[in-house]
């Protein structure tokens, strides 16, 4: 009998990829107005430079463990009370400016001051554009009466809470919100999943995990024996991690829950 549902946040309930895309589009259009660059080419260049820079910093292993991606580094403040987050907070101003300046340079524009301007613009645009999937609230409304709901998200507490502050309607649905940066380990580490079971006071058989990432949400759940549902909205290919169920839309959870509750 399923008594609780654990939801991932980014690209499961919140459409983070779309928010980042829209922020890039708006910021790159500023560069188009000034230098007549192709905004999509600039976005691609900045994404490439951001990934390379991000992985070169001493904070990279920590960000990998906690689950903070390069594009979150382009807009997060990381005001968390922890030495690793303090290092990250110190790095990100230079990182942002460098990523945008190098992206411009890749297109033949050498203007670090403008790179800084774009680097400051991107976080503003990202905060303006929170997107929630169309079915998210209907599904949570349907489930909240019947199940305990827990939000389990990788990332910096400061940044994940910022995402929740700009979509405040989400928070009241959840009995518990667990953020990897506050816990000290990220998905797929089994300990964070065991922590959720303790918070819920439930056995692994009584819980189901819903998330979009095979390597964090699904792998972590399967490691501790929690039923896993992979939401695959964009027809991604499976890898060696096999979910118990695969869906394209959150409403497809209902028949899965019915089936599990009859067992």
TrEMBL record:
Domain of life of the source: Bacteria
Keyword set, alphabetical order: Amino-acid biosynthesis, Cobalt, Hydrolase, Magnesium, Serine biosynthesis
InterPro entries: HAD-like_hydrolase, HAD-like_sf, HAD-SF_hydro_IA, HAD_sf, PSP_YsaA
EC number: 3.1.3.3
Named cofactor requirement(s): Mg(2+); Co(2+)
A single BP term in Gene Ontology: L-serine biosynthetic process
Pathway: Amino-acid biosynthesis; L-serine biosynthesis; L-serine from 3-phospho-D-glycerate: step 3/3
Catalytic activity as recorded in UniProt: O-phospho-D-serine + H2O = D-serine + phosphate; O-phospho-L-serine + H2O = L-serine + phosphate
GO MF term list: L-phosphoserine phosphatase activity
SUPFAM superfamilies recorded: HAD-like (SSF56784)
NCBIfam families for the chain: HAD-SF-IA-v1, HAD-SF-IA-v3
Family: Belongs to the HAD-like hydrolase superfamily.
Role summary: Catalyzes the last step of the phosphorylated serine biosynthetic pathway, i.e. dephosphorylation of O-phospho-L-serine to form L-serine.
HAMAP family assigned to the protein according to its UniProt record, in alphabetical order: PSP
The protein's name: Phosphoserine phosphatase
């Amino acid at each position: 009998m399923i008594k609780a549902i654990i939801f991932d946040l980014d690209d499961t309930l919140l459409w983070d990829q779309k928010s980042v895309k829209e922020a890039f589009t708006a910021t790159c259009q500023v560069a188009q107005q000034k230098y007549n660059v192709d905004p999509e080419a600039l976005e691609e260049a900045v994404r490439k430079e951001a990934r390379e820079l991000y992985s070169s910093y001493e904070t990279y292993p920590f960000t990998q463990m906690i689950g903070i991606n390069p594009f979150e580094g382009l807009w997060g403040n990381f005001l968390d009370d922890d030495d690793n987050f303090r290092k990250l907070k110190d790095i990100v101003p230079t990182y942002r400016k460098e990523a945008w300046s190098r992206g411009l340079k890749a297109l033949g524009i050498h203007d670090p001051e403008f790179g800084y301007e774009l680097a400051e613009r991107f976080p503003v645009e990202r905060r303006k554009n929170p997107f929630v999937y169309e079915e998210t609230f209907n599904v949570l409304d349907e489930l909240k009466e019947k199940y305990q709901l827990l939000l389990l998200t990788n990332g910096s507490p400061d940044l994940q809470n910022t995402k929740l502050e700009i979509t405040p309607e989400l928070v009241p649905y959840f009995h518990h919100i667990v953020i990897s940066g506050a816990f000290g380990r990220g998905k797929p580490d089994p300990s964070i999943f065991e922590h959720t079971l303790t918070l819920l006071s439930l056995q692994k058989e009584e819980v189901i995990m819903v998330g979009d990432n095979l390597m964090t949400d699904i792998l972590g759940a399967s490691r501790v024996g929690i039923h896993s549902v992979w939401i695959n909205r964009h027809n991604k290919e499976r890898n060696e991690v096999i979910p118990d169920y695969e869906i394209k839309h959150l409403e497809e959870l209902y028949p899965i829950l019915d089936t599990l509750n009859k067992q």
